Amino acid sequence: MTSPHRLRVAIITENFLPELDGITVTLIHLLAYLNAQGVETLLLGPQSGMKTYAGCALVGASGFPLRAYPGLKINFIPMSFFDTLCGFSPDVIHLVDPIWLGIQALTAFKILLPGIPLVTSHDTNLPTYSTIYGFPYFRRRAWRVLRRVHSIAECTFVPSHSTATLLSEKGYANLRVCDRGVDVDSFNVPGALKPRHPEKLGLTSRRRRSPVRGATEPGEESLASGRKLLPPSSRSQRFVGDGPLKAPLRRLCTTKNIRAVFLGALTGRALGEAFASADIMSAPSFTETFGQVTLEALASGLPVVGLYAEGTVDLITHLKNGLLLDVHASDEVETNDLWQPCSPLPPGTKIACYDTCAELMRPSSDSFAFLATQYAALLEQLISNPTLRDNMAVAALSTAQEYPWNRCTQKILDVYLKSSCTASNRGFVRFAQDVLMVGVAVLVAALSHLLFMVPTIADLLRR
Question: Residue limits of the Glycosyltransferase subfamily 4-like N-terminal domain (predicted)?
Fold first, then answer.
């Protein structure tokens, strides 16, 4: 097996600094860890203005803004990258969430370095977000293309067991759960994170407050509707995050007369202050693959109220470090009075994901009002029961301590080392098949801005 001190890894990512999300946070910890272990790294990602980071050489790709999601871009590989890549001579290539830039890079690798082992990561359910942001007809095609792209890899990293289960059901193979991590000391420093400017956090009185998962995720409307059902003295919430759904959510809070403060995207001390000044974390998302912000809330000692859904269930244990709502039980529970906020979840409760609960969570659905009422009851349970809240806070911190960053990054390094020993010169037929497949994938990606807006005959027949 190759020694870490002789290993060279090329990483291609669709997103990197200065944008901050779960993928970027994972990458910056991974690069720092690899540098400490003596691994040489080269990263191709969006143009950041930086030449290096944590000992890693950075190559920036330029592009044009993604209309559906301001702040993200569709980038193109610079011609200079090919010479840089060949000169770097990687032992392993890692495509992080290959969507556009990753698929372009895959074509280059198959032509220039056909024998180099390849690993991939699946951190974002792109087909789900294509529907959420207005391109529903791209969803089924995206699953097929991505499944084929990931099938070329030696293995595909996924951040949670629930996401691994979902992808297995969709035909993905060779999945490896690597989790993520959190620096507990950054979020749980007693007395050190008291807000310097409490008025900016909306702290005008000592009411029970809950920071929200973020203003970019679907599911927030269930929170807002649920908050409307709480006593007026409890309706104080702060939204941490940014994104396309922020403006609609702000309008919704205004319409429903809900007192809310939108803090925008926060990092570092500011994010720690937002968590430290709150009592409860509310995370009603059903599109997570892990839930990095949820883990950071746990590290701050906050109990979490969320959905029994993909990503969240890997971190939150109902009645232990938070409360979870089973959205699939709405029809069954609506006919009886047995449900209570602290009722245990029945054995075999189905994990929700976008495919199974998007329709249930739609505001116009028959079940939405009932689900909002239940969600409000879960929040009120923690608001009105300080003993339960304090017990869950202790359990929350204990859970976060199980996710040190070096555990996640060492799992990835172990796969790099193992994969580096499998380099081979594939036969011409297999090489031709891969190049043909990648060419088709690139064509689909290039035309996707038209394809996902044009329904097929099958799409029309389903309507």
Answer: 21-185
Buried b (16+ CB within 10 A) or exposed e, 228-244: bbbeeebbbbbbbbbbe
- Note the pLDDT of residue 287: 83
Lowest mean pLDDT among 218-222, 304-308, 324-328: 218-222
DSSP label of 105 = H
Residue 220 DSSP symbol: H
Please name the residue that has the structure tokens 């420093």.
189
Q: Where are the domains of the chain?
A: 4-181+406-462, 184-403
Question: Degrees (nearest 5) of the Cα angle 170, 154, 48?
Answer: 90
Class assignment of domain 184-403?
alpha beta
Cis peptide before 18 (omega within 30 of 0): yes
User: Residue 171 corresponds to which tokens in the numbers above?
Assistant: 């035909």
Domain 4-181+406-462 architecture: 3-Layer(aba) Sandwich (3.40)
State percent of the chain over pLDDT 70: 73
Nearest Cα to Cα of residue 274 among 283, 265, 284, 285: 265
pLDDT tens digits for 392-423?
Answer: 999 999 999 999 999 999 999 999 999 988 76
Looking at per-residue pLDDT, the higher value among 444 and 83 belongs to: 83
